[in-house]
Amino acid sequence: MSDAMSVFPKLQTGIDVNIKFVDVSCFECTPELAVFDVLRIPLYHGWLPDPQDNATCSSVMNYSYNQLVEKIISSKDSTDEDVLREGLLAEEFLKNSASQLTCHGVLSILESAPNHRLAVLFRNNHFLTLYKKENELFTLVTDQGFLTKSGIVWETLSSVQGDTNFTDADFLSSQTQSHEQSPKQQLDSDFQIAMSLQNEEDKISPCQNNPSTANTSHLSNEDKDRQMATKLQQELDKEALRHSSSRAPPRGQQPQTVSDAEDEKKCIIL
């Protein structure tokens, strides 16, 4: 209790812990860990080597993080091939798992953490609130960018590559909405416009002499697609010209003439 009381003031600025690459709940015994012991809050990390990689495990598992860094530094000055090899393996492990999380680490946390109990996850030199519900891990979202997103409270911890989902306070999936269209949405929108133009064109009688409204049934699919794209670009050009002509020119600048607008249309790349 005395050790925990001395650590409490440091919680406002952060405390240091030294993980060990043996187990997800294994840390170097320091006075800082007394806080978690007194409050009975489990502390985990997900920085474990793959047990199938025997060479890396033998070079990493018997060390804490601080000891492993010292080992890597000292191995660079050694002439022993075994020491050099272990140092390189340890350095490669730290480099490949720079996010301080591995697949084996996530699975180990999932097996060790009990359901419906809060815990703390140490990752990227930060402490995250961890919760396990129905054999699924969640971390509390505390990023400032989500402050106004009331429907985003938890983030799933199921992948090292960042393929996660956001949920609300009831752990129901929450979709982040953006005011800007994604590239796929933009393509779908353009395709719908093109199809609408094509349908309008098909409604026009094919017996008219105007070439732009002639029946295109004899054309190939590639020619039809090109014609639809051209028609779409023409409509977009007209819309852009209407917007530009509706705005008054800035002071000291001459209004845009029709020839200027035609030149701009010629420069548009479809």
From TrEMBL:
Keywords: Hydrolase, Protease, Thiol protease, Ubl conjugation pathway
Domain MINDY deubiquitinase: 1-171
Swiss-Prot/TrEMBL GO biological process terms: protein K48-linked deubiquitination; proteolysis
Catalytic EC class: hydrolase
GO molecular function: cysteine-type carboxypeptidase activity; cysteine-type deubiquitinase activity; histone deubiquitinase activity; K48-linked deubiquitinase activity; K48-linked polyubiquitin modification-dependent protein binding
Amino acid composition bias (Polar residues), ranges on this chain: 206-219
Biased segments, Basic and acidic residues type: 220-242
Catalyzed reaction equations: Thiol-dependent hydrolysis of ester, thioester, amide, peptide and isopeptide bonds formed by the C-terminal Gly of ubiquitin (a 76-residue protein attached to proteins as an intracellular targeting signal)
Entry GO CC: cell periphery; cytosol
Protein's recorded name: Ubiquitin carboxyl-terminal hydrolase
Family as reported in the entry's similarity comment: Belongs to the MINDY deubiquitinase family. FAM63 subfamily.
EC number(s) per entry: 3.4.19.12
InterPro entries (UniProt xref): MINDY, MINDY_domain
Protein origin, superkingdom: Eukaryota
Keyword ATP-binding on entry: no
A Pfam family hit: MINDY_DUB
PANTHER family in the record: NF-E2 INDUCIBLE PROTEIN, UBIQUITIN CARBOXYL-TERMINAL HYDROLASE
Chain residue ranges for the region called Disordered: 201-265
Organism name: Ciona savignyi (Pacific transparent sea squirt)
Function according to Swiss-Prot or TrEMBL: Hydrolase that can specifically remove 'Lys-48'-linked conjugated ubiquitin from proteins. Has exodeubiquitinase activity and has a preference for long polyubiquitin chains. May play a regulatory role at the level of protein turnover.
